Amino acid sequence: MTTESDTLVHPLAKYMRTDRLPWIYCPGCSIGIVTGMVARAIENLGIDFNKVVIVSGIGCTGRVSGYFKTGTFHTTHGRPIAFAEGVKIANPELEVIVVSGDGDIAAIGGNHLIHACRRNIDITVVCLNNFNYGMTGGQFGPTTEHERYTQTSPRPIGNIEWPFNLVKLAASSGATFVARWTAVQVRRATKSIEKAIAKRGFSFVEIVGACPTSYGRSNRLGDGVEMHRHLLKVADIQNGLPPHEAELEYDSRIVCGEFVDIDKPEYTEVLKKAQEKARSEAR
Amino acid sequence: MDITFNIGGMAGQGIDTIGDLLTKVFVRNGLYTFTVKDFESRIRGGYNFTQIRVSDRPVHCPVDDIHVIVALSKDAITGKRDQLVADGVIIYDDRLDFEPSEQCHFPAPLSKTAKSVGGSTRMTNAAALGALLSVVGFPFDLAKEVLSDIFSAKGSDVVERNIRVAQALYDFTAERFTGSCRTLLRDLRPGKATARLVVTGNQAVAFGAMAANAKWVAAYPMSPSTGAFVEIVSHARELGIGVLQTEDEIAALAMAIGASYGGVRSFVSTSGGGFSLMVEALGLAGMTETPVVIYNAQRPGPSTGLPTRTEQSDLLFTLFASQGEFPRVVFAPRDPVDAFEAVVRAFNLADRFQVPAIVLGDQYLADSAMNIEGLDVPGVTIDRGKLYDGSQDQYQRYLLTEDGISPRAFPGDPGVVVVSSGNAHLENGHITEDPSLRDAMVEKFIKKIPAIRESLREPDLYGPDNPELTIVSWGTTWGAIREAVTILNEKEDRTIAHLHFTDIYPLRTGRLEEMFASSERVVSVEQNATSQFAHLVTMETGHTFDGHINKFDGRPMTPRWVMDRVREVIA
Ligand SMILES: Cc1ncc(C[n+]2csc(CCOP(=O)(O)OP(=O)(O)O)c2C)c(N)n1
Ligand code: SF4
Ligand SMILES: [Mg+2]
What we know:
Radius of gyration of chain B: 26 Å
Number of helices of chain B: 18
CATH architecture of the largest domain in chain B: 3-Layer(aba) Sandwich
Structural class of chain A: alpha/beta
CATH topology of the largest domain in chain B: Pyruvate-ferredoxin Oxidoreductase, domain 3
Number of domains of chain A: 1
Shape of chain B: globular
Strand content of chain A: 15-25%
Largest sheet of chain B: 8 strands, mixed
CATH topology of chain A: Rossmann fold
Order of helices and strands of chain A: HEEHEHHEHEHEHHEEEH
Number of helices of chain A: 9
Bound molecules: thiamine diphosphate, iron/sulfur cluster, magnesium ion
Largest sheet of chain A: 9 strands, mixed
CATH superfamily of chain A: Thiamin diphosphate (ThDP)-binding fold, Pyr/PP domains
Oligomer: heterodimer
Strand content of chain B: 15-25%
CATH class of chain A: Alpha Beta
Structural class of chain B: alpha/beta
Helix content of chain B: 25-40%
CATH class of the largest domain in chain B: Alpha Beta
CATH superfamily of the largest domain in chain B: Pyruvate-ferredoxin oxidoreductase, PFOR, domain III
Number of strands of chain B: 20
Shape of chain A: globular
C-alpha cells in the first residue's frame, strides 16, 4: 500500500495545478520545460504566490498560465502584454509575468510588445519561440525563417518572408533587460528569468524551443529529443554581446545570453511621481 | 438504411485517417455519408471523435444513435457508450483497460498488430479499417484501394505495410467476431449514389471563392476557419491567386480592401475573434464603397470561448458591426453546396452594390463533410457590377446616380485617378463637411438596401399549408431541423412547416408575413442563447414569436434533440 509519504512529489509541484494534469502538450514539446523555468525562478526569488500574476495569450504556450497556482489571467490572442500592463498599473506591487508564444507576442501582439518596451513598464515577458503557430496546426509566423515549410508556406517554395529577430526587436524598442536562451539551457535561462523578474523595468526573455509536432515535422527536424539535441549543439553563449549581433540561424548558430541590462525610469514609478507632482501643484 | 460509426481516441492517434478511409469505402460503394468531427482545442491527448453516418439516402446531419464504436482510448468507449444502440458493436484496442460485458464488445489487437506486422503503431488506423470492413462484411479489396489512395504519396512500402496490417485484422476479425451483432449491420450494402465528391464546408467556401475569381486572399489562422484558407493556399499557384497570411486580422481585411480598391476580387476568412478585429476596416469598406467578401466561421464566444465547437451567436454582431450606418449583405449557408453558391453570390452582390458581404458559417459547417455530386463551377457567372466606361470628363468615384451606385474604376486605369476616403466625401472622393452632400451620400448608401434585398432569395419553405407550427431557422441547423420536421409530420401526424433562411440580410419578409398569418404558432430554432435571428425578424416585421428553441453547448443539433424540444413546445 502506498501512503502519502511514499509518493514522490516534485519540488515545484506546489506551484502547479496538478489537478489540471496531464497537460495538453505533445511529447517532446518545450513548453513544459519553460513552465518549469518560470516556476523555479519564482521559487528561487521566494515570491509569494499571491503576489504573482501570470498573464498569457492564446496558443499552446498561452495555455501555460492555466497550470500555475499563482494568479493567472488567460487573455486574448496577441494582447497579453497590454492586459499585463493594466494589471501592473493597477497594482505595481505585483510581479507580472507574461508567458506566451512567438505568434502571440510578435505577430498579432507585435505592436503591444514594442510599445511596452518603449514605455519601460516593469513586467517580464517570457516568449517561447517555436517558429510557428503550434496551436492552430503549424502555420508560419513572424519568427519563421525564410524558405521554411509550414502549413501555410508549403513545399516546394516555403516561407517567402523573413523573420524578426526578437532580441534585436526588443532591444531596439527600449527594453531594459533582454536575454535569449534555448530550452535546453534550463539553469541559465532560469537565472535570466529571475533577473528579469527582479529588474525594475521591461524585461524580455526569448526561449528558443521545439514544436516537434508541427514545425519539426514540416521541416524534417526530427522528434522532440532530436530537436532539443540540436538546440544544444547550435547554442552559442555570448553573454554581453551587443544585441544587434545576437544572430539566430536555426541550422547553425543561435546566439544565447543576456544582451541588455540597463536602467531607465520605470513607467509605474514615473506615473506615480507625475501624479504626486500634479497633486502637489494643485494644492 | 441508416448506420452511424463513431471512431474515438486521443488527438494525434489518427482517428481522422480512419474516418477518411471509411468514408472513401462507403462513397465508392454508392452510399451517402455525413461526417462530423468533435475535438478539443489541443494538439495531443484528450478525447476526440469522428462520427460517420451512412445511408442509402442523402443525410444532412449527425444523429444520436450509434451502431459501431471504434475506440483507440478508454474515453472513446465510455464517452459514447450510452448512445450505442442495443446490440451495437464496440471494436476497441485490446490494450485498453476495459472488460467486455457483452458479446458485441470486441477487443482487437489494433496497435499490437500495427507494430508487429506493419512496424509502427501509426498503422493502427489501417488495423482499424481491416477490423471494420470485416465487421460490416465488405470485401477486403476495398481496403487495398483506399489505403493505396491515401498513402501512395508515401511510397509503395508504406502502402504495402498498411495493407498487410489491415489484412491481418480483417482475417482476425473474420475468425473471432461472430454472433448476432452483425444482424444490425446486414442492411449495409452498396448503394446507387453517384455522389463522389467529399467536401467539408470550409472546402466548399474555398472553392466558391476560387470559382468566383478571388485573386487576393488574406487571412490570419483561426479555428475553425483555417481549413478554408489552407485550401486556397494549396491551389494558389496554379490559379494565380495572391495569398497572404498576415500578422493579424486587422491587416488581413485592410489588405483585402486595398486589393479591392486596386481592382481585384478579394476575400478574407476568419472566426468571430478575428472578425472583431476586422470591424474597423469593415467600416472603411462601407464608407469607401469597396466590395470585399468576409467568411466568418463562427465558434462559441465571447472571447476565446470554445475554439473547436459550434454556435450561431455572431449574427447580430455581424449585422451591426462598425460605427455608423451602411449597407452590407449577409449570408448563412446551410451545407457545403449552399456555401459554395452563397460565396459566389456574395462576390457578385458585393461588386454589384459595392458593399462588404459576409458569409456566416460555423464550426459545424466548416469541419463536417459529406459526399455530393459536385459543385457547379462552370455555372458560375461573374458580375463585376457597374464599371466606368470613360464617359465622364473627369472620373468621379462617388458620382451621384439614380440607383446610388457609382461606376467603379481602378487606380492605373488609363486616364483616371481614383480618389477615395473614409471621411465624408464629395462625388470626386475628396473630403467635405457640406451638410447637403452628407445627406446625399447617406441617401446614396441607404438607397441600396431595398435593391440588395430584392436580389436576395426568399427563404426555403417546407411543409403543409396552414400548419399548426412553423419553425423559423437559418444557416447550418437546416439538416437536423428538416429531418426532425419530416419525421414529426410523417410519423406523428403533425402539420409543421419549416421556413429556413440562407439569405439573411437585408431580410426578405414576404414568406415570413405569410407564415405569421397562416400558422397557428411560430417558433424559432437557433444555435445560440438569445434567439438572435428571431430578434431580427421582429425588428423587421413587428411579429413576435410564440417560442424559442435554443442550443448553446457548442455541439451540433440532432433531429432527436430538435424533436424533443418541438414536442415540448407543442404540448
Ligand atoms: C484574434 C485571433 N486570431 C486568431 C486566433 C487563433 N490562434 C490561436 S493561437 C494562434 C497562434 C499561436 O501561436 P503562438 O503564439 O506562436 O503559440 P504556440 O501555439 O506556437 O505556442 C492563433 C493564430 C485567435 N485565437 N484569436
Ligand atoms: S503543437 Fe507544438 S507547441 Fe503545441 S503542444 Fe504540440 S509540440 Fe508543443
Ligand atoms: Mg509559436
